[in-house]
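Researcher: Let's do a round of design. I'm pasting the structure tokens now; please hold your answer until I've finished.
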């Protein structure tokens, strides 16, 4: 059973001018791990990556983007192509998308003397919330009660799974090679996983998607995923 995966990864950059931007320290490791795991299982995978310095996993088609709006456009194009096929389509959104962008990007480098010290920002689109017609897997990186926030995001964005983690926990968060996550499903169930490598978490997310596609996910199945 081949599935179709579209995975976003890494940060986005929101330019102020050609040499300055707003971004975050996401390395893209989690998304690249999901893409690699899905390709290893024989699925068709497109990875939509923000600016990162990782090499493309074997068997994965990669599209590089810069801003959140570029990322949304690439995901929508991939989704509409994927929906015309027969495979179940999974959108796995691991990207740390910048929530805000400067209202205007200057065409040339701003001069220090001409900058007022005030930068006007506007909201970026929420890619995960916006797209539809596919199964959706989201991430919730929190600094507090990750499970409560994940349950809220699951409802608000219509997700099939939220992978929640407390980014302040040891061995978790941006740049780490490991992560401690909780799988939160739309029924509110929360299944904590042990501390695992991002590769191992990627493999479990792909397993979840395969089980969902077969209609197999229930509390007993989830109980066995750790
Ligand atoms: O609401 P919050 O940003 O915490 O949600 C995190 C989830 O939503 C992640 O899966 C992230 O990839 C996705 N997201 C998105 N577009 C945004 C913000 C977040 O796709 N603008």
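Researcher: That's everything. Go ahead.
Model: Designed sequence:
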């Amino acid at each position: 059973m081949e599935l179709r995966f579209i995975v976003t990864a890494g940060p986005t950059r929101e330019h102020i001018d050609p040499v300055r931007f707003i971004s975050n320290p996401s390395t893209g490791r989690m998304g690249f791990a999901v893409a690699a795991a899905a390709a290893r299982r024989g699925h068709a995978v497109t990875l939509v990556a923000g600016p990162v310095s990782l090499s493309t996993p074997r068997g994965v088609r990669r599209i590089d983007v810069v801003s959140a709006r570029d990322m949304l456009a690439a995901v929508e194009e991939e989704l509409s192509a994927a929906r015309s096929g027969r495979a179940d389509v999974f959108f796995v959104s691991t990207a740390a998308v910048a929530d805000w962008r400067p209202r205007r990007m200057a065409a040339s480098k701003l001069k220090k003397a001409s900058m007022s010290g005030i930068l006007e920002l506007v909201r970026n689109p929420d890619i995960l919330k916006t797209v539809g017609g596919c199964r959706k897997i989201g991430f919730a990186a929190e600094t507090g009660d990750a499970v409560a926030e994940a349950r809220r995001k699951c409802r608000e964005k219509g997700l099939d799974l939220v992978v929640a983690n407390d980014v302040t926990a040891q061995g978790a968060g941006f740049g780490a090679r490991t992560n401690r996550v909780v799988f939160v499903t739309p029924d509110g169930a929360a299944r904590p996983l042990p501390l695992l490598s991002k590769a191992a978490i990627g493999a479990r997310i792909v397993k979840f998607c395969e089980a969902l596609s077969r209609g197999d996910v229930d509390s007993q199945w989830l109980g066995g995923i750790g």
